[in-house]
Amino acid sequence: MRAHATGRRLHDPKGGSFWYDAGAVCLDFAHTGGEGQYSVFETLHEPADLAEWLAQPPLAAVMTVPMTVGDLTAAKALRQAIWETAHARAADRDLPAGAVATINATATAPPLVPELATDGTSAGWAPPVWAAQVLSTLAREMIDLLSGPLSGRIRECASDNCPLVFVDSSRPGARRWCSMERCGNRHKLRALRARRGTDPVREEEDA
């Protein structure tokens, strides 16, 4: 995986957007849409949408083999498996067997192969670059995450109504929110209103 910052801008179907960094590309990928109640957040409607997402940094995997409907179906299956296993680990539950099987099966394909540029100072992915390679790379990253030292740092946002999940790789391990721009600021605002509602002296001092 490329050594660049993770994170993507997520868009609310009701309007607005915010920057969300899940701490791993595979977890960023898990937030490109979903099933059931999360289908309103779907961003991967066509194979071209998937190709565009994968081509963005930090993955920067530009397809040299055209993306197909079958590739999109496989990508959504992996996405759901990542979502389910991440939430299970965050809740300290057993990982769903079906989701684990999907991740493992996806990881059996050859991954992306890094290739040093002729100038010796940059790198890309050795062609041909096709969907199964990219999905394998994402699945392998999720395997490493679930089985590695940060496994216990996979968490769900502390907000009561936010299902976003992330891995906290910070040194103190104190991250609670999907984003301070979103749920963190909402919590601070609610806490401020609660203090002002119960402490009129403090409200006058803050005014």
TrEMBL record:
Gene3D superfamilies linked: Jann2411-like domain
Domain Zinc finger CGNR: 153-196
InterPro entries given in the database record: ABATE (IPR010852), ABATE_dom_sf (IPR023286), Znf_CGNR (IPR021005)
Pfam families per the UniProt record, alphabetical: ABATE, zf-CGNR
Matching PANTHER family: BLL6575 PROTEIN (PTHR35525)
Protein name (record): Zinc finger CGNR domain-containing protein
Originating organism: Phytohabitans rumicis
Source taxonomy: Bacteria, Bacillati, Actinomycetota, Actinomycetes, Micromonosporales
